[in-house]
Amino acid sequence: MKIYLSHSGNYDYESELYAPLKSSDLSHTHQILFPHDKENIDTNSQNLIANVDLVLAEVSHPSTGQGIELGWANAADTPILCVYRTGSKISSSLRFVATEFIEYADANDLLKKLEMWLQAKE
C-alpha cells in the first residue's frame, strides 16, 4: 500500500514518528512517504496525496498545514486514517474528513495497532 504520512511540524516528529515507522516492518511491506524527508521536501504534497492509497494522519498536534492536506485528501477521495496519542485533544472537525481513528499510548502501541489495521484492509 502507498501511504502518505501527514503530521504537524510542531513537535519532534523525526524521533517520535519517523524513526519508529522507518525501523518497523511496515516500512518494508508498504511504501510510506515521509513529507519532510530531504527527497520529498520540495514535492507538491497535493499531487502525492491524490495518488496514494491512504493518508495516515498523526493528529495529536493540531496544525493548519495538516488541515489543508486532509482537505486535499478528502477532495481526492483518498482514505484518511487518523492516529493520536492518548490524552491528546484532537480537532472535532476531523470527523468530517475521516471515519477511522486509532488511539495509541506510545510508539510500540502505534506500530502494533497500525499493523493490525493495515492487515485487516488487505
Verbal overview:
- The chain has 122 residues and is of the alpha/beta class.
- The chain has one domain: Rossmann fold (3-Layer(aba) Sandwich).
- Helix content is 39%, strand content 20%.
- It is built from five helices and five strands.
- It has helices at residues 13-22, 26-29, 45-50, 64-75, 107-121; strands at 2-7, 31-33, 54-58, 80-85, 100-104.
- A five-stranded parallel beta sheet has the order 2-1-3-4-5, sandwiched between helices.
- It is globular.
- The termini are close together.
Question: Would you list the SSEs in sequence order as H and E?
Answer: EHHEHEHEEH
Helix content: 25-40%
- CATH level 3 topology: Rossmann fold
Q: What structural class do you assign from the helix and strand content?
A: alpha/beta
How would you describe the oligomerization state of the chains in this entry? Answer: single chain
In CATH's first tier, which class applies? Alpha Beta
* Order of strands across the main sheet: 2-1-3-4-5
Unreliable runs: none
| Mean pLDDT rating | 92
Question: Quick summary of this structure?
Answer:
By secondary structure, the protein is an alpha/beta fold. It has one domain (2-121): Rossmann fold (3-Layer(aba) Sandwich), CATH 3.40.50.450. The protein has helices at residues 13-22, 26-29, 45-50, 64-75, 107-121, and strands at residues 2-7, 31-33, 54-58, 80-85, 100-104.
Question: How is the topology of this model organized?
Answer:
Elements: E1 2-7, H1 13-22, H2 26-29, E2 31-33, H3 45-50, E3 54-58, H4 64-75, E4 80-85, E5 100-104, H5 107-121
Parallel strand pairs: 1-2, 1-3, 3-4, 4-5
